[in-house]
Design brief:
Helix 2 (36-48) crosses helix 8 and helix 8 packs across helix 10. The chain is α/β, with parallel strands linked by helices. A 7-stranded parallel beta sheet has the order 3-2-1-4-5-6-7, with helices on both faces. It has helices spanning 2-17, 36-48, 103-107, 116-125, 144-147, 153-159, 183-196, 208-221, 231-238, 242-249; strands spanning 27-32, 52-59, 70-74, 90-94, 130-137, 165-172, 225-229.
């Protein structure tokens, strides 16, 4: 009897509240260059945060993704200017060669640095409002004046495309291994390895998992505008809490 007396009251309360509001649609993410250790870490982290309703990775041929809500978008040819528009809200560009011993990565489309403007224009045509670009650079070779600003005409072209948010993350890359051919080249490589120790610690490469943490936090917290993270910013974020470091970088 007690439960029956409460039922009309509960019904009136439910009616007063009105119909339940539908959950807002989650953002759609598209990734170019989801290859290598960095691409794998970034993809896993962003998908794991469950902020995106769907994630597409650009591919040369159909792929079967191991992660839930991740699919491949097969592109025709190697020129983004010729592609049909897609449908996404957030875009991410990574420049890292695929690991050729991974069958899935061989099927993915990998951008080259000179393709950045055309790729950004395609993403803008596809509805992307937030674009994040992770740009590797040689240790100690980026002039101080360019670390925190637009460093090339290609970057300026991307900045002119009127994205609501443009994030450029600069991270030092590991030196490419090579085989010395002859004693002179071996001596040159040895001398280069000695000079590498003279590069400041803040210019040293950062582990891929830490770069992925930085990118994920930046995508979550960055306000409107153009934001460029210098290599030192990414390195310092890797030494502690990435979310706090990103908020400090963005002055939030």
């Amino acid at each position: 009897m007690e439960a029956m007396r409460h039922e009309p009251i509960q019904a009136l309360q439910a009616a007063a509240r009105g119909p339940a509001r539908p959950a807002p649609p989650r953002s759609r993410l598209v990734i170019a260059g989801a290859t290598g250790v960095l691409g794998n870490e970034v993809l896993r982290r962003l998908v794991g945060l469950e902020r995106y309703g769907s994630t597409e990775v650009l591919a040369r041929e159909p792929i079967r993704a191991a992660l839930r809500s991740v699919g491949g978008r097969v592109v025709e040819g190697d020129d983004p200017a010729q592609w049909a528009p897609g449908a996404a809200d957030t875009g991410l560009v990574l420049f890292e060669p695929p690991r050729l011993f991974y069958e899935r990565e061989r099927a993915l489309w990998t951008p080259r640095p000179e393709q950045l403007p055309a790729l950004a224009r395609w993403m803008r045509r596809s509805g992307v409002r937030t674009l994040a670009v992770v740009l590797p650079h040689a240790q100690g070779r980026l002039p101080e004046a360019l670390k925190r600003g637009l460093a090339s005409l290609d970057e300026q072209a991307v900045a002119s495309l009127d994205f609501e948010r443009l994030l450029i993350v600069r991270s030092a890359r590991q030196p490419e291994p090579g085989v010395a051919r002859g004693p002179l080249q071996a001596t040159a490589r040895w001398m280069h390895s000695v000079f590498r120790y003279m590069v400041p610690s803040t210019e040293q490469p950062v582990r891929s998992v830490k770069v992925a943490e930085f990118v994920a936090a930046a995508l979550q917290d960055a306000p409107r505008g153009i934001h460029v993270a210098a290599p030192e910013t990414v390195w310092r974020a890797a030494q502690g809490d990435a979310r706090e470091a990103v908020r400090g970088w963005l002055r939030l």
